[in-house]
Write a structure and sequence with these properties.
This protein folds into two domains: 99 residues, Peroxidase, domain 1 (Orthogonal Bundle), CATH 1.10.520.20; 76 residues. By secondary structure, it is α+β, with helices and mostly antiparallel strands. The protein is elongated. 63% of the residues lie in helices and 14% in strands. It has a four-stranded mixed β-sheet with strand order 2-1-3-4.
Length: 183
């Protein structure tokens, strides 16, 4: 869940990045930073530590920005978050910024859960059908979940469309139980 603080930072960052015509690039950089910090909890904890002196935190942020490498916009945000002890908010800021970038680009994201892997042609056909229905570009994350038994479950724009065999079996079991209770 994205909190108000993360949304405010994301809106401000998006305004700056749009003015400089590189919102997507800043988003990609910050996704990389968030991924790097998630993969290196020692670094993430050090940067978030209130006992780390500001000079050392800034040096670590500068080194991170140089190593990845990051634009001035992304580096400035990290420094600002570090100064205000808000680096732990970065994943939520990235999520909020991704939503802003998606809206600006006219695309939506969804998670497609399938019982078994499908080939790229089938996935492309499904994506094209969704794009035709939604009249926007659709970015899908595919997850294989054998517990679905068959069919698919799609989560998109806060809604779940469950056409899986397991969902149908649950619905059937519920109807049967209702029939027993009525008798």
């Amino acid at each position: 869940m994205i909190g108000g603080l993360a949304k405010r930072y994301a809106r401000g960052l998006a305004a700056v990045a749009r003015a400089e015509h590189h919102l997507e690039a800043v988003l990609a950089e910050l996704e990389q930073v968030a991924s790097t910090l998630a993969a290196n909890p020692v670094l993430a904890n050090a940067l978030a530590s209130p006992i780390l002196v500001a000079e050392r935190r800034n040096a670590l942020i500068h080194e991170l920005a140089r190593t990845l490498p990051l634009s001035a916009t992304s580096s400035t945000l990290l420094s600002l978050l570090g100064d205000r002890h808000r680096l732990p908010e970065l994943p939520r800021i990235v999520e909020a910024l991704r939503e802003i970038a998606d809206i600006q680009a006219g695309r939506i994201r969804g998670t497609l859960r399938i019982a078994r892997k499908i080939d790229d042609t089938q996935l492309a056909q499904l994506r094209e059908a969704l794009e035709k229905i939604r009249q926007r570009a659709v970015l899908l994350t595919v997850e294989v979940d054998p517990s679905l038994i068959g069919g698919v479950s799609l989560e998109m724009e806060g809604r779940v469309f469950d056409g899986s065999a397991s969902a149908q079996l649950r619905a059937l079991a519920h109807r049967l139980a209702q029939g027993r209770n009525a008798a």
